[in-house]
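I am writing to request your help with a piece of structural work I have in hand. Here, with my thanks, is the record as I have it:
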Amino acid sequence: MKSADVNKRMRRLEAEIRHHQFLYYVEHSPEISDRDFDRLFAELQELEAAHPDLANPDSPTRMVGSDLDNEFPKFQHTVPVLSLGNTYSTPEALEWARKQAQDRETRIGVQWKVDGATLVLYYEQGRLVRAVTRGSGQIGDEVTANALTIRSIPHVLRSEVDLVARGEVYMTFEDFANYNEQFGSVYANPRNL
């Protein structure tokens, strides 16, 4: 592919990815599946790796999608909250694990993929003082009052430690259907609730 064609394809992918990010994060009504989005994203990453001279400094591959909401106060994360990579096959996962283990002792845990919203919990002296969404990866929405309503989030730890914990807040599809039935709200998926 000619350099001009590669450049054109990269700009088109950037625009398409930004469009889908807006629909997903702002409008809460995605047009394509997560897997289709990931394919577009991976294609752009591959083109940028093969043609670094054509890579755009503000490419969507260098940014974290943002779920910031104007209703909540903002909080600057103490450590950037980055996106996790995706794999869709056993060979891809094994290749990723092999790369992680190169030249060092590595332990890897595997768990089911849960598609929720990232939540970062900040504990001081064992007490939950702040719960923050991923947001832009640098700045998130402070949603402590909401997080305190989730029974599985401890308000106080057994030890008086300072701790930052990252996890996913999610709702099962069954609970999501019950919620929509009870409250008459129709959301595209539980993550947008």
Observations:
- The mean pLDDT is 85.
- The first strand starts at residue 74 and ends at 76.
- The chain has five helices and five strands.
- The beta strands are 74-76, 117-124, 127-133, 139-141, 163-169.
